[in-house]
Design a protein that fits this description.
The protein is mainly beta. The chain contains 1 helix and 4 strands. InterPro entries: YheV.
């Protein structure tokens, strides 16, 4: 099944500063935003994974088993 990507109206890429170039989709319960111009990607783990992190700790990353 193809992944449906949605553009984020008015959003600016933090890397290349291009407006209206960010597309978003969800993959394995992770939100992914990618600039279609420069390829810069941002990922955010789902809410359930973030809730397991204690407030005062710093997290380098959340890893999912294959």
């Amino acid at each position: 099944m193809p992944v449906r990507k949605r553009f984020i109206a008015g959003a600016v890429c933090p890397e290349c500063q291009t407006r209206d170039s960010l597309a978003m989709w969800r993959e394995n319960n992770v939100d992914i935003v990618e600039c279609v111009k420069c390829g810069h990607q941002m990922r955010e783990a789902d809410k359930q994974a973030r809730e397991h992190v204690r407030e005062q700790e710093q997290v380098i990353g959340i890893f999912h088993p294959d």
